[in-house]
Amino acid sequence: MSDVSVAGLTDLPALMSLESSFPASQRWSADSWREELIAVNRRVLVCGGEGVVEAAATFALCDDVVDLHRIVTSPAARRRGLARQLLAAGIGWAEAQGACRMLLEVEATNAAALALYATQGFLPIAERRDYYGPGAHAAILERSMSEGEQP
């Protein structure tokens, strides 16, 4: 397992490197990540060791709702539980902030991500058609913070 820590501006180059995991049309810019890192209502978490960022997640608090904006694991570090660690840490942060629920969008065909989110108590509540492009729909998932610890 890797350590989870709060990211800072010095992690920006590593975060940009992780963006290559996404199709070009879905990649975030450095300005987008910089905004995530400096906004007061956000929490960017990273996993890694020895100065390397292997995975990252960013969360945003608005009133009593936390949105998971992004979660990404480098291809070389997949299937090691890093996304699960980041998600658990983000849920803990959300609960500490007094959030009642967490929301996220995920590509409806991303079976691995859907399975991960289901193990953490997320349930589908809606769909956004063509969210990731023509024919690529997003499932909107929600988790109540009153769920307590998930398996």
Automatic annotation (TrEMBL):
Stated name of the protein: GNAT family N-acetyltransferase
GO molecular function terms listed in the Swiss-Prot or TrEMBL record: acyltransferase activity, transferring groups other than amino-acyl groups
SUPFAM superfamilies (UniProt xref): Acyl-CoA N-acyltransferases (Nat) (SSF55729)
Record bears the keyword tRNA-binding: no
InterPro entries listed in its UniProt record: Acyl_CoA_acyltransferase, GNAT_dom, YpeA/RimI_acetyltransf
Keywords: Acyltransferase, Transferase
Source organism of the structure: Tessaracoccus antarcticus
Any matching Pfam family: Acetyltransf_1
Span of domain N-acetyltransferase: 2-146
